[in-house]
């Protein structure tokens, strides 16, 4: 039983990591119906910015709390700036193009950003400072769940609730939902659609940056490729839960994390990714719109 | 920037060659190919070999070359990909290289070797450790200045069983060419140990995965006293960190891919007590010192991975070329097999299969943030 | 054409990019040694680069707009695309074709073995591009796991040869068929998914195939791969390396010609037109009575066939296969070829494959930037020239004037 609980918690940790990234995917998809392949790269850039900022600040002798806050700010600001720019450069001009075009453009952007960081920084793994300290009150539970796991889990929950509130109850959220439903109609009622889309990208990217910082601090190292691997998994999770739906992304992430964890624990980690992708295929066969997604009926 | 630098050294090397050649007799230059990953994400494994070869050849050319002939380096990139390596090999062969230093990765080396073999070119790798390369007998033209994976696995297993006296061992690998090969040998050797120890878990982890706690839980449940890990330091440091975070005392034993200072820096205090095999400590050898100093002077940086092995390979090949008195591969091979050559690893020669005799592995342990050789 | 305001805006844009790239381009930290390297010169390059890029796009857009207005006013006629002109006028394309054809024919006789070898690789990508073109370009199904079929082909030759001693010529069609059946296997469950879902599932499928090859040691020899795969034989003769590469080259030329022939015939066939229709509008397509599933499956299977056959050739050429050759990156490169060439355009795909594969080989200094440029190419092509370098010429059917009145009377 202990073993089961341990695996359950390790699955939860994994799931909450995926969820932090998956939320960004799902938001963008929900609003403009585009798979933002570059989202994983934004997460990676957030982590890199965090590494650079925290190292510079610690060399200059700042205390840890100041470093954590400033690093969080810096990585969120720059990641949002990248998200905003990527949207303006690669997606906005393609708003009325065939469906395939922005998708290919997104794949291109993802390759570009990956190699940009590879060339501008390094291909080696860099150690990432432990910005989340080991809390004393967590010590008795260390065998099940670490401090950083806990922080990630809590952050994911808080972020999900905040996002749901933002979309359900604020003016911006209302505008977002309107844009998602019918872009032309939204324009007619006076919503600046371009702005709303930009805001979506900025929020999604800032989330990715927070995720980047927390996850990198949990794992302890980063390189230019982390975004791609985590991005694909998070994206799978978002699709699993029904892309476009915020609770769906979180649910899908937890299901994916738990599946991988139990597959590793009871079968073998040799095939953990095979399990993950097979699960995706199976779910899509029986529920083509994902678990919580609404099946869209195309009308002519 | 890197390219500029490379270009510059090439130009200086060429100028040097031309300058001395006009004074000496104009024999046909000897062409040595240097092939490996020089760009992309594995460049850090390939570039030190290029630098090692450049430094050694510069010395040789300054002394008048080999038997009066200048040495020319042909540097070719294979990005560690088998399909590119065949192109690289074909290019070098069509440029009529005499010998080749490389390739860096085992897969790329395997793909390239038949081409060199058909052309009768001798190849010496500083880093390709796959046992098949020498033991299969398919590549009589292949030599290497690094011990093969099975020798390394043997060291790890013997150490775990005889020195640490552990009974239950978990063998973990990163599913890669290097790591998985090593892990399989470790598993085989443990099973052959006659019941002194048993493999309680054999499993691969996915490189780059966000979290390894499930595997760590599995190790914990298996009751393993020691983990033998085959793979590179990024995964190793993640696993060690998570083992320690779960407050487990399991001994961690790993390989050359982990015996890297980056591992200690990344894993921090969690790295303490980790064992790793690596080439015997040669830093006191005068030749090692000489070339490490030269590197420091020329590039203002510590030499990277496989630098000493590459110096050894270059010295062995140039020595064989000089002693053989010709570029005929049979003559070169004879010298390689029969005569000792002074290298950073001491005086070495090559056995029938092409492995260097006297290049082996020792066990290291992390103590106070440093790798210390275990006696 | 460029006003003061444009320059002003350009400066603002470059300022933004300087800010954007500041942490990654200017600062480089070594967290181990705790040293910071400041690379201020990069700031200048970024500023200059983004400023020039901005102006270039501005000019491009302005010129395009001006031309469109002139066309509207009837001042000039719509300019026919040079690619299309090349293809439509026999007087132009016949001599070009002859020269290019002759060039390819004597290529290995004039140039070195190495050059021929590179060309073989490029030709392999031509066929791969043409194969993926059926799926992505013609049928409009974004397949991100194309490399899986390539792997199936390569491993079928490696394994069948190792276990049963089957030769290259026997396995070539088998590899194609196996890949096709894998295409159908994958196609059945996923083809009812919409475009984006399809993309991620195919990507997952590609990964699954690679992971199985990596982990199932007793079947595929795992990550250490299979070596000593024989090159194709020629009437039982033992060929030297040079001859064998030349032989391979002519084989690839034949293969390319065969592929072009088949793909061209397919595109103008009933099924080909169904693919185009499917790409444009699925619902209308179904309303016209086209069997959606069958049409999609044929596209998938046919695309996979080519990948399988090239996979066999790949294994024979490299004489070594391991799973590392079949990563997502490979799929991305092939996709890049199709997009750059122009989706659905045969000649475009050929030209794009040659450019993208040969350029990094000849410009080695550029090889570090290879993937960066590939990524940029995908974005820039989509934004500025979605039809590719040589756009696909759609066959148009004109109703002769003589029968027009009859039709209208009915």
Q: What does the model show?
A:
The complex is a heterotrimer of chains A (300), B (375) and C (410). Chain A has helices at residues 2-32, 39-59, 64-91, 100-120, 147-169, 171-181, 183-188, 193-219, 226-241, 246-267, 272-286; strands at 126-127, 221-222. Chain A is an all-alpha fold and 300 residues long. Chain A has a domain at 18-224. In chain A, helix 5 packs across helix 6 and helix 9 crosses helix 10. The model of chain A has no long low-confidence stretch (mean pLDDT 86). Chain B is of the alpha/beta class and 375 residues long. Chain B folds into 2 domains: 2-146 and 284-357, 3-Layer(aba) Sandwich (Rossmann fold), CATH 3.40.50.2300; 150-273, Rossmann fold. Chain B has 13 helices and 15 strands. In chain B, the strands form 3 sheets. Chain B has a 7-stranded mixed β-sheet with strand order 7-6-8-9-10-14-15, sandwiched between helices. A 5-stranded parallel β-sheet of chain B has the order 2-1-3-4-5, sandwiched between helices. In chain B, helix 2 packs parallel to helix 12 (307-324), helix 6 (149-163) packs across helix 7 and helix 9 (233-245) runs parallel beside helix 10 (261-267). In chain C, a hairpin with a 4-residue loop joins strand 1 and strand 2 (35-38). In chain C, helix 5 (113-138) runs parallel beside helix 10 (241-267), helix 5 (113-138) crosses helix 14 and helix 5 (113-138) crosses helix 15. The longest helix of chain C has 34 residues, at 40-73. The termini of chain C are far apart. Classes of the chains: A mainly alpha (300), B alpha/beta (375), C mainly alpha (410). At the A-B interface, helix 1, helix 8, helix 9 and helix 10 of A face helix 8, helix 9 and helix 10 of B.
Strand content of chain A: under 5%
Largest interface: A-C, 69 and 59 residues
Strand fraction of chain B equals 15-25%
Number of strands of chain B: 15
Name of the CATH homologous superfamily of the largest domain in chain B? Response regulator
As residue ranges, the low-confidence spans of chain A are none
Mean pLDDT of chain A: 86
Helix content of chain A: over 70%
Total count of helical runs of at least 4 residues of chain B: 13
Number of strands of chain A: 2
Question: How would you describe the oligomerization state of the chains in this entry?
Answer: heterotrimer
The string of secondary-structure elements of chain A, in order, is: HHHHEHHHHEHHH
Helix content of chain B: 40-55%
The span between the termini of chain B is 43 Å
CA radius of gyration of chain A: 19 Å
* Morphology of chain A: globular
Number of helices of chain A: 11
């Amino acid at each position: 039983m202990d073993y089961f609980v341990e695996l359950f918690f390790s699955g939860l940790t994994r799931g909450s990591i995926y969820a932090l990234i998956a939320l960004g995917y799902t938001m963008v998809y929900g609003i403009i119906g585009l798979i933002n392949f570059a989202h994983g790269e934004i997460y990676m850039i957030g982590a890199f910015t965090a590494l650079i900022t925290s190292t510079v600040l610690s060399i200059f002798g700042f205390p840890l709390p100041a470093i954590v806050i400033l690093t969080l700010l810096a990585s969120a600001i720059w990641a949002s700036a990248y998200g905003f720019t990527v949207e303006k450069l690669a997606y906005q001009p393609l708003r009325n193009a065939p469906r395939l075009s922005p998708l290919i453009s997104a794949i291109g952007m993802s390759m570009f950003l990956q190699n940009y960081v590879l060339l501008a920084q390094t291909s080696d793994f860099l150690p990432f400072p432990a910005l989340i300290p080991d809390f004393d009150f967590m010590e008795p539970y260390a065998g099940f769940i670490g401090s950083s796991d806990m922080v990630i889990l809590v952050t994911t929950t808080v972020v999900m609730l905040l996002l749901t509130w933002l979309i359900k109850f604020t003016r911006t959220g209302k505008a977002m939902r309107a844009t998602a439903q019918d872009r032309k109609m939204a324009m007619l009622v006076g919503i600046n659609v371009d702005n709303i889309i930009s805001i979506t990208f900025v929020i999604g990217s800032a989330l990715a940056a927070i995720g980047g910082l927390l996850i990198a601090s949990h794992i302890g190292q980063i390189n230019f490729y982390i975004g791609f691997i985590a991005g694909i998994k998070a994206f799978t999770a978002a699709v699993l839960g029904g892309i476009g739906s915020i609770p769906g992304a979180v649910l899908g992430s937890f299901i994916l994390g738990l599946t991988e964890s139990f597959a590793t624990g009871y079968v073998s980690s040799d095939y953990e990714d095979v399990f993950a992708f097979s699960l995706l295929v199976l779910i899509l066969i029986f529920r083509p719109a994902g678990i919580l997604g609404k099946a869209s009926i195309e009308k002519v | 920037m890197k390219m500029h630098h490379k270009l510059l050294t090439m130009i200086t090397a060429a100028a040097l060659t031309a300058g001395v050649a006009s004074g000496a007799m104009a024999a046909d230059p000897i062409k040595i190919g240097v092939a490996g990953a020089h760009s992309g994400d594995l460049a850090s494994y390939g570039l030190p070999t290029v630098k090692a070869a450049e430094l050694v050849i510069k010395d040789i050319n300054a002394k008048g070359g080999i038997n009066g002939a200048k040495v020319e380096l042909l540097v070719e990139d294979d990005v560690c990909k088998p399909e590119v390596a065949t192109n690289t090999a074909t290019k070098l062969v069509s440029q009529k290289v005499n010998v080749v230093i490389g390739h860096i990765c085992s897969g790329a080396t395997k793909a390239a070797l038949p081409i060199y073999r058909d052309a009768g070119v001798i190849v010496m790798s500083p880093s390709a450790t796959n046992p098949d390369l020498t033991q299969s007998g398919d590549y009589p033209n292949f030599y290497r200045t690094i011990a093969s994976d099975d020798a390394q696995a043997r060291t790890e297993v013997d150490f775990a069983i005889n020195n640490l006296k552990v009974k239950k061992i978990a063998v973990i690998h990163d599913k890669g060419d290097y790591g998985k090969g090593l892990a399989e040998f470790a598993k085989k050797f443990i099973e052959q140990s006659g019941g002194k120890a048993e493999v309680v878990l054999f499993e691969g982890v996915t490189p780059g995965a966000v979290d390894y706690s499930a595997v760590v839980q599995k190790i914990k449940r298996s009751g393993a006293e020691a983990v033998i890990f085959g793979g590179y330091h990024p995964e190793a440091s993640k696993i060690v960190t998570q083992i320690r975070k779960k407050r487990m005392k399991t001994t961690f034993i790993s390989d050359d891919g982990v015996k890297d200072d980056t591992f200690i820096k990344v894993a921090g205090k969690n790295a303490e007590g980790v064992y790793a095999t690596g080439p015997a400590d040669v830093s006191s050898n005068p030749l090692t010192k000489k070339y490490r100093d030269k590197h420091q002077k020329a590039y203002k940086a510590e030499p990277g991975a496989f630098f000493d092995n590459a110096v050894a390979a270059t010295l062995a090949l140039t020595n064989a070329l000089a002693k053989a008195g010709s570029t005929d591969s049979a003559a070169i091979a004879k010298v390689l097999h029969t005569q000792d050559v002074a290298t950073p690893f001491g005086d070495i020669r090559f056995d029938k299969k092409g492995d260097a005799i006297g290049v082996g592995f020792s066990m290291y342990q992390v103590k106070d943030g440093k790798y210390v050789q275990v006696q | 054409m460029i006003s003061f305001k444009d320059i002003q805006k350009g400066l603002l844009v470059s300022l933004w990019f300087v800010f954007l790239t500041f942490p990654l381009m200017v600062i480089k930290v070594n967290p181990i040694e705790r040293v910071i390297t400041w690379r201020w010169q990069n700031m200048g390059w970024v500023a200059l680069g983004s400023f020039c890029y901005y102006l270039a796009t501005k000019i491009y857009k302005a010129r395009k707009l001006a031309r469109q207005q002139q066309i509207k006013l009837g001042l000039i006629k719509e300019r026919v695309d040079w690619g299309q002109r090349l293809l439509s006028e026999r007087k132009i394309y016949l001599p070009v074709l002859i020269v290019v054809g002759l060039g390819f024919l004597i290529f290995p006789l004039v140039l070195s073995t190495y050059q021929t070898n590179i060309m073989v690789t490029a030709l392999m990508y031509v066929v791969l591009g043409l194969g993926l073109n059926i799926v992505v370009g013609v049928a409009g199904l974004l397949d991100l796991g194309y490399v899986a079929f390539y792997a199936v082909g390569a491993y079928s030759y490696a394994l069948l040869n190792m276990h049963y001693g089957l030769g290259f010529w026997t396995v070539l069609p088998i590899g194609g068929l196996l890949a096709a059946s894998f295409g159908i296997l994958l196609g059945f469950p996923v083809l009812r998914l919409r475009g984006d879902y399809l993309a991620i599932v195919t990507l997952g499928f590609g990964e699954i195939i690679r992971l199985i090859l990596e982990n199932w040691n007793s079947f595929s020899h795992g990550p250490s791969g299979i070596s000593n795969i024989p090159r194709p034989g020629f009437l039982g003769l033992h060929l030297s390396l040079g001859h064998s590469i030349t032989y391979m080259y002519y084989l690839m030329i034949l293969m390319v010609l065969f592929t072009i022939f088949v793909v061209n015939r397919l595109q103008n066939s009933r099924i080909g037109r169904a693919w185009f229709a499917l790409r444009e509008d699925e619902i209308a397509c179904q309303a016209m009575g086209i069997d959606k599933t069958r049409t999609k499956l044929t596209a998938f299977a046919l695309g996979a066939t080519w990948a399988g056959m090239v996979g066999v050739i790949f294994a024979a050429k490299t004489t070594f296969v391991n799973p590392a050759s079949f990563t997502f990156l490979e799929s991305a490169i092939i996709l890049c070829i199709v997009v750059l060439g122009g989706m659905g355009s045969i000649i475009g795909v050929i030209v794009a494959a040659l450019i993208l594969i040969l350029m990094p080989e000849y410009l080695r200094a550029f090889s570090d930037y290879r993937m960066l440029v590939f990524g940029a190419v995908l974005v820039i092509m989509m934004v500025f020239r979605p039809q590719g370098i040589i756009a696909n010429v759609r066959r148009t059917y004109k109703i002769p004037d003589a029968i027009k009145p009859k039709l209208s009377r009915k």
